[in-house]
């Protein structure tokens, strides 16, 4: 997917990610949350040239490959195919959650009325039914429970925040024990291996 840029100094996305951002009812930049318009998007030739020139080692076979050719390489690299199959094979789920350790990231309290034991879906449903017109600035209990969350940050539109920021359960995708640097490295490595 070719790299794309919004405006002269705007955020940069691959074309597929930008398309996902633009396909919502009220398109917003995934980075800064400002409104998006398809007419502002243009191909980022500077990033495209850099990707065509930069070499990076394949994590599976160590061959140096142009970043722009990584997907094509991993689709033909036998070691990368084996690694992908191993990565997709589920591991044991017995140790999924030891609820006695660490903060509770599975149930939350309504920041408006204090109703307890709401999972993310129940929290959204509860707030839509009981607090849909309440514009009080509140702290998002989901964000506050995360290692990177700010327990003092108040959202100006909590229900919109819940709808846009918490569409999935973080425990499905996030390793809470990993630090930011190792998570970033893993995400970058996986993105290079995606087809």
From TrEMBL:
Catalytic reaction equation(s): S-ubiquitinyl-[E2 ubiquitin-conjugating enzyme]-L-cysteine + [acceptor protein]-L-lysine = [E2 ubiquitin-conjugating enzyme]-L-cysteine + N(6)-ubiquitinyl-[acceptor protein]-L-lysine
TM regions (residue ranges): none
UniProt organism field: Petromyzon marinus
Protein name: RING-type E3 ubiquitin transferase
EC number: 2.3.2.27
Source organism superkingdom: Eukaryota
Any single GO BP term: protein polyubiquitination
Segments forming domain C2H2-type: 108-136
Keyword Zinc set for record: yes
Keyword line: Metal-binding, Transferase, Ubl conjugation pathway, Zinc, Zinc-finger
Domain annotation C2HC RNF-type: ranges: 58-77
Pathway: Protein modification; protein ubiquitination
Organism lineage string: Eukaryota, Metazoa, Chordata, Craniata, Vertebrata
GO terms of molecular function: ubiquitin protein ligase activity; zinc ion binding
Top class in the EC scheme: transferase
């Amino acid at each position: 997917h070719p790299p794309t840029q919004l405006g002269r100094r705007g955020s940069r996305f691959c074309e597929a990610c930008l398309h996902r951002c633009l396909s919502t009812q009220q398109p917003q930049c995934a980075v800064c949350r400002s409104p998006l318009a398809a007419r502002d998007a243009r191909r980022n030739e500077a990033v495209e040239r850099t990707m065509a020139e930069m070499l990076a080692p394949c994590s599976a076979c160590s061959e140096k490959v142009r970043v722009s050719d990584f997907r094509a390489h991993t689709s033909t690299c036998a070691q990368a195919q084996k690694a992908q199959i191993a990565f997709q094979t589920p591991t044991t789920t017995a140790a999924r959650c030891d609820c006695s350790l660490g903060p509770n990231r599975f149930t939350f309290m309504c920041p408006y009325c204090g109703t307890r034991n709401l999972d993310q879906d129940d929290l959204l449903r509860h707030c839509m039914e009981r607090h849909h017109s309440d514009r009080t600035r509140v702290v998002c209990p989901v964000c506050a429970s995360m290692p990177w969350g700010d327990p003092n940050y108040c959202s100006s539109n909590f229900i919109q925040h819940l709808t846009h920021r918490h569409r999935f359960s973080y425990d499905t995708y996030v390793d809470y024990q990993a630090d930011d640097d190792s998570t970033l490295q893993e995400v970058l490595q996986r993105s290079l291996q995606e087809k």
